[in-house]
Design goal:
The protein is mainly β. The chain has four helices and 17 strands. The longest helix is centred in the C-terminal third of the chain and has 11 residues. InterPro entries: Fumarylacetoacetase-like_C, Fumarylacetoacetase_C_sf.
């Protein structure tokens, strides 16, 4: 087989405690999956069906890392999230069998160009330009499920320069991991290598150049991201 251009490198993340890598195929993100965050963004937190958006696979960046402050924004926000790694594909997966498809878990940050998102909402346009940009998904090493304490009850938190900004429990998810992955599989056939960012709790706020962000999901993983100057 020949290509007219060199194929891009495989997007990947390290596996915790190993020299191996997890190949990233796609990144799906769940919107407004914590009631308090829905309220802080001015939305109704009622338990409506989950909705999803995507990031490109190469938005996934291994941590610890230093990321340049992104272009086109003056209002970069952090959103700490539990991340699920799919190891077995499938469509129309029952919630009761979702665990059979999960390879591992981690923690990541869904960086958002909030000013661009607000402008898109006002114009009733898609959010892509505010979510799917370079380096917008720094993620800690993927932890195999055998080493994951819980996907239903664990503290999730983020601090900026040592000051805690986001602090909640994944038990507060409106749609549990099993439920929202089952729903996602009704509309897309999941495949090995897919990542799912499961939503962020309240406390999202702006980051500045020089900020050091630390965060984690207890019993799973922690991360550190430094915001560098614009490229």
């Amino acid at each position: 087989m020949s290509y007219v251009l060199p194929p891009p490198p495989q997007a990947k993340l390290p596996v915790a405690g190993s020299d191996a890598f997890f190949p990233v195929r796609r990144i799906f993100c769940v919107g407004r999956n914590y009631e308090a965050h829905a309220r802080e963004m001015g939305n109704d937190p009622d338990r409506e069906p989950p909705f999803f958006f995507t990031k490109p696979a190469d938005a996934a960046i291994a941590t610890p890392c230093t990321l340049p402050y992104p272009s086109l924004t003056e209002d970069l926000h952090h959103e700490i999230e539990l991340v699920i790694a799919i190891g077995k594909g499938g469509a129309d997966i029952p919630a009761s069998r979702v665990h059979e498809h999960i390879w591992g878990a981690s923690v990541g940050i869904d960086f958002t160009r909030r000013d661009l998102q607000a402008a898109a909402k006002d114009a009733r346009r898609p959010w892509d330009w505010s979510k799917a940009f370079d380096n917008s998904a720094p993620i800690a090493p993927i932890v195999p499920m055998a080493d994951v304490a819980s996907l239903s009850d664990a503290r999730i938190w983020l601090a900026v320069n040592g000051e805690t900004r986001q602090d909640a429990n994944i038990a507060d998810l409106i749609w549990s991991v099993d439920e929202h992955i089952a729903t996602l599989s009704e509309g897309m056939t999941l495949a090995p290598g897919d990542l799912i960012m499961t939503g962020t709790p309240a406390g999202v706020a702006a980051c500045q150049t020089g900020d050091v962000l630390t965060g984690g999901v207890d019993g799973i993983a922690t991360l550190e991201v430094t915001i560098g100057p614009r490229a």
